[in-house]
Write a structure and sequence with these properties.
Elements lengths: L3 H8 L5 E2 L5 H11 L3 E6 L2 E7 H9 L10 H4 L13 H11 L3 E6 L2 E7 H23 L2
Parallel strand pairs: 1-2
Antiparallel strand pairs: 2-3, 4-5
Helix pairs in contact: 5-6
């Protein structure tokens, strides 16, 4: 059974982090430069939340707020369920589906050690299926 650790091993565990005082426009520029859909907000080296494209569209654009004046701390989502490297891909998929999430923070010893996305979970599931097919193919032909 594949685990979160397998995703992080494949994609790496680097996470773009920002302070809660950063303006939304600066966070969006970082996200565009890095081609990512979220940034982690940390305070005193502790994970406190994520700002996602969804947060931006719903909490800034639709409310007529200014991206230059609003901080990421004002719009971040902080009630994400956390997962560990030992959690299964199936568990992550279930959490993401039930709570309509696109990202999950990976927390180890009270520190952020990665972020996985729904795309990561789908990719890992596809890789697992390909491996299973290859094993079955080899078994049939041996």
């Amino acid at each position: 059974m594949r685990k979160v650790a397998d995703i992080l091993k494949r994609k790496g565990n680097h996470v773009e982090t920002v302070q809660s005082e950063l303006t939304v426009i600066e966070a969006l520029k970082l996200m565009a430069d890095k081609n990512i859909g979220s940034v982690a907000i940390v305070q005193n080296q502790r994970f406190v939340g994520l700002m996602t494209e969804r947060d931006y569209s719903r909490k800034v654009i639709l409310k007529g707020r200014s991206s230059n004046e609003t901080t990421v701390g004002e719009i971040m989502t902080s009630d994400y369920p956390s997962i560990t490297k030992n959690d299964s891909i199936e568990h992550c998929m279930e959490l993401m589906s039930k709570q309509n999430l696109r990202y999950l923070p990976v927390i180890e010893q009270d520190k952020l050690s990665g972020i996985i996305s729904i795309n990561d979970v789908v990719t890992e599931t596809i890789l697992t299926q390909k491996e299973t097919i290859e094993h079955l193919h080899n078994y049939i032909h041996s």
